[in-house]
Amino acid sequence: MAATAFYKIGNLTFGLHGSASLQMLLDYEGLHPFALETIAEPALSIELDVQLPRFDDGSLLSQTVFKETESLCLFSVKGDTYQFEMWNSDKSRRLVTLHYQRGGQKAYLSSCNDFSALRFALWFACSMLMARLRTTFVHSSVIVYRGAAVLFLGESGTGKSTHTRLWLKNIQGSRLLNDDSPALAIGSDTSNPTASQTIIYGSPWSGKAPCYINRCFPLAAVVRLSQAPHNAIRQLSVPEGFSALQPSLPPALMQDEWFADTLIGILSDVLKSAPFFHLECLPDADAAHLSCKTIFG
What is the mean pLDDT of residues 105-118? Predict the structure, then answer.
């Protein structure tokens, strides 16, 4: 029997409507802190368990592997309709299909009995729906300190989670907000009506360190990490800041011109609202103290 559940992810409200797939998501602990009571009209909606007329003749935008389950992910476009599919590793069985029409307020997912695929497809659907409303996910680990958020960026394996753990251990008063995919939203700065403000939100997706916190904080700084035999930090120029953050935005969406233009617009506003740094570091307490002192004084 079909049902509807409501959530607030980032600064946006979502209505999820479905049956079997929705029940799987209702059991997902990561979504529980973001649940809402019934609301009149959510800003965005996702229809689950839909029979979708998948297409094979669209233009392929990206082909990647979802490492958690070794699933093949295909993202394509035909006209103004986007299709995202997940297949098992040998492409003998399709796990889930997602459709979204450019600029729309609704996304559609087929039935799915693989929880990991469903959770990732939901993230992908939210990513597409949020983009035009100046909100996106950022692949990062987020520390909150003195009432503000610091985004630590880096490719998988470069030490984002290690560095944030060093903050938690050595910087009194620091807290983890999210360890993989926080939401970033651009809004008005109430203290300066002519300026924009970047707000960082916890999300239902947090990677290897489950941290599902429904709170938000203004962005204090963005730090790109790289491993080194020393600890050194420097502030980045605007072009360098652009290059630091762009790879951490949803990579598949960046392969499409419309989504790329939308995400670059968000990125441009972030560059105006907070400083960017590059931290070359060892996995030690001194690196955490150095980045903290540089950002907060």
Answer: 96
Delimit the domains of the chain by residue range.
3-132, 136-296
Which residue type, as a one-letter code, is found at position 218?
Answer: P
Q: CA-to-CA distance for 14 and 51, rounded, in angstroms?
A: 21
Give the whole-angstrom CA distance, residue 82 versus residue 99. Answer: 6
As a whole number of angstroms, the distance between CA 8 and CA 17 comes to: 15
Half-sphere exposure (Cβ direction) of 124: Cα atoms closer than 13 Å: 27
Does pTM top 0.90 for this prediction? yes
pLDDT tens string 158-201: 788 899 999 999 999 999 999 999 999 998 655 565 567 999 99
Instruction: Write phi, then psi, for 102 (nearest 5 degrees).
Output: -50, 125
Closest CA to 158 of 172, 139, 143: 139
Q: Tokens at residue 232, please?
A: 């050194």
Tokens of 50: 């839909």
Q: Between β-strands 81-87 and 71-78, what pairing exists: parallel, antiparallel or unpaired?
A: antiparallel
**Measured CA angle at 185 (ends 83, 101), to 5 deg:** 20
